[in-house]
Amino acid sequence: MPSGHEESESIESRRKRLARERQVSLRERRKINDENRHPDHTEQEINDRTNELERTDNGITRHELGRMNQTCIHYGAKFWMEEKNRNSSLASPAFSICCAHGKVCLAPLIVLPPYLLNLYTSSDSDAVSFRKNIRRYNNVLVCTSFGADINVIAGQGISDFRIHSQVYHRIGSLLPEDGLQPAFAQLYIYDTEHENANRHNVMPDLNNGILHNLLIMLDECNPYIRNFRRVRDLIQMNVPDEIFMVIHADRTRDS
Ligand SMILES: [Zn+2]
């Protein structure tokens, strides 16, 4: 990474230099913020000054978006100032990439089950622990997984992958193959007496109580999981016929 400084610079002098640069950067930013309120400065001038500062900040190019404190007046979506419409001003910014100025009518958000809302918002230890591991709880409770053939495109910058056309989730069989551990939706159907233990085999560090409560919540609220439980009940009742479960996606809705 190019730094513009001698490689022989000691750790201590580098630390002092970065601290000095941070102070200068902070003072400059405060000055720019003050000048933003001055009507004589155009937006282009302010951007030029900010970009100049970004080039010199610690010798590393940095792009600072500031706080995500702007709001769409129609539905309340949050924005950074830099996402405003080009023809609107800093003093009166307008945003349209969320709902095209209210033309797109969004369905109201679903009210969260109280247990999940508490995990999202509370400061108690379970909630904090849940938020810290939220992706792992999600991974261990999902009914299917996402897969794609990824072509790595050589080049600089953040890597990405692109998907063409419709995305499908192949959910697989309702029961695991002989000798294999249940996974994804199969965990809701097969060997459910040891359901929590089976999940702990996948993610041993997760909190057993939280996992148990999330399962109770999903059994009550999630229509797909209620269907998987129905399949489990049929299997346990030794229904003689082969069991199929068919999910019809309604493509006229977004959920
Ligand atoms: Zn909007």
Task: Give descriptors for this structure.
2 strands; binds zinc ion; Helitron helicase-like domain-containing protein; mainly alpha
Q: Can you tell me about this structure?
A:
By secondary structure, the protein is mainly α. It folds into three domains: 11-59; 65-106, no CATH class; 114-155 and 168-236, no CATH class. It has helices spanning 11-36, 43-56, 114-121, 125-132, 134-141, 195-202, 208-221, 223-236, and strands at 70-71, 78-79. A two-stranded antiparallel ribbon has the order 1-2. A hairpin with a 6-residue loop joins strand 1 and strand 2. The longest helix is centred in the N-terminal third of the chain and has 26 residues, at 11-36. The model is unreliable at 1-7 (pLDDT under 50).
Side by side, the strands of the main sheet go: 1-2
Query: How does the major sheet shape up?
Result: 2 strands, antiparallel
Count of distinct structural domains: 3
Overall pLDDT level: 80
Number of strands: 2
Element order: H for helix, E for strand: HHEEHHHHHH
Low-pLDDT runs of 5+ residues are 1-7
What percent of residues are in strands?
under 5%
**How many DSSP H or I helices?**
8
Counting copies of identical and different chains, the oligomeric state is: single chain
Q: Roughly how many Å is the radius of gyration?
A: 26 Å
SS class: mainly alpha
Distance N to C terminus = 45 Å
The set of bound ligands, ions and cofactors reads: zinc ion
Assign an overall shape: elongated
Determine the fraction of residues in helical runs and give it as a percent range.
25-40%
Protein name: Helitron helicase-like domain-containing protein
Biased composition (Basic and acidic residues): 1-13, 20-61
Region (Disordered): 1-61
